[in-house]
Design brief:
By secondary structure, the protein is α+β, with helices and mostly antiparallel strands. It is built from 5 helices and 6 strands; from the N terminus they run H-H-E-E-H-E-E-E-E-H-H. A 6-stranded mixed beta sheet has the order 2-1-6-5-4-3.
Length: 182
């Protein structure tokens, strides 16, 4: 078998990096929509996650965090920023640093509170067969901000925006996503 060309190696690296980004997006969707199955699809079954006081199996973390967020948060949105991906020479492992900003809203003492948390996911990804998923994760919090909410839901332009994000399975993604044409 011939050695891959530099172009073929570059294409393989681009495909690997896109697959890793897709897993990061599934993670964020799973957390925000409280969809444990989607969240688990970003991790290998034997993966670990160290996230605040949680330190253990990532699939257990998926069940814990989605239940906690469903019970304690009115809404949330994870936003991925910079993603630094270093692929190992073996072609089946990668070291990944992902900047994330999480917007969350909770009810506390009868008031809606907005929380803004910024940090980084420090991940070790592994490729099995042709799929990349998180093998180990450490969440690092870099800063946060907490305020009384100023959200408007039924005034001005906001009143016209009726499609609102919800938890799984009631989110528009789960209900109204158009199917691709064949």
């Amino acid at each position: 078998m011939a050695e891959p060309t530099s172009r073929e190696r570059a294409i393989d690296q681009l495909l690997a990096k896109q697959s890793i980004r897709d897993a990061l997006s599934r993670y964020c969707h799973g957390v925000d929509r409280c969809d444990a199955d989607m969240l688990k699809s970003a991790y290998w079954p034997d993966a670990t996650d160290t996230h605040g006081t949680f330190n253990g199996n990532a699939w257990e973390f998926a069940d814990v965090i989605t239940a906690s967020m469903r019970d304690n948060m009115l809404r949330s949105m994870q936003h991925i920023g910079n993603v630094l991906i270093e692929l190992d020479e073996d072609g089946s492992h990668a070291r990944v640093e992902t900047y994330v900003i999480a917007y969350m809203q909770i009810e506390e003492d009868g008031l809606d509170k907005d929380m803004l948390i910024a940090g980084r996911y420090l991940d070790r990804f592994e490729k099995r067969s042709s799929e990349w998923r998180i093998l180990d994760r450490l969440y690092v919090m870099d800063w946060n901000r907490n305020d009384t909410s100023t959200s408007l839901w039924s005034e001005g332009i906001y009143e016209m925006l009726q499609a609102r994000g919800k938890r799984y399975p009631d989110d528009p993604w789960d209900q109204n996503l158009p199917t691709p044409r064949k």
